[in-house]
Amino acid sequence: xxxxxxxxxxxxxxxxxxxxxxxxxxxxxxxxxxxxxxxxxxxxxxxxxxxxxxxxxxxxxxxxxxxxxxxxxxxxxxxxxxxxxxxxxxxxxxxxxxxxxxxxxxxxxxxxxxxxxxxxxxxxxxxxxxxxxxxxxxxxxxxxxxxxxxxxxxxxxxxxxxxxxxxxxxxxxxxxxxxxxxxxxxxxxxxxxxxxxxxxxxxxxxxxxxxxxxx
Length: 215
Hints:
About 25% of the residues lie in helices and about 45% in strands. It is an alpha+beta fold. It has a domain at about 40-190: Sandwich (lipopolysaccharide transport protein A fold), CATH 2.60.450.10. Strands 1, 2, 3, 4, 5, 6, 7, 8, 9 and 10 form a ten-stranded antiparallel beta sheet that branches. Strand 1 and strand 2 form a beta hairpin. The N and C termini lie far apart (about 145 Å).
């Protein structure tokens, strides 16, 4: 191989090395992988209300100072609960409690902490816990259960009903008192009845005065 060919080969090798180096240096670097941001699964709502309906009829509604809804577990947590349970006969139970949980899959509700339930007739239930089972539409109260109705008082660890505690089953250290007239709740009911009667009397008197003025 003569000297010219060797020189050409050397130049060719140098050019090839330069070309490779240029390609490596000018090739853009791959962008760093972007961190995948998962959307939040828990949404918080202030002063909101959740309702449940069956066949277009409202079964219950629950309002809370704060509601946390988890889209993955389908569970909602309540703080400072106020609710209403609507009975088939038109009776409405008003309920309050410190906190609660709603299962969106089963439609069940659990409320706890200073639970109080009052119906339109003046009957009252207090307990530490209250559960609503959607499947059979039963309400169950547990722990330190007390039921106040007219002159009857019932105490126990467990009480359940499917008609707004008009009829109920009670278990665990049950004690029932009848003919109670002198406790605070009896006095409260008497005061409410007296106030309602006075209001009715005032309406009747106003109506009678209006009739006499017409004559």
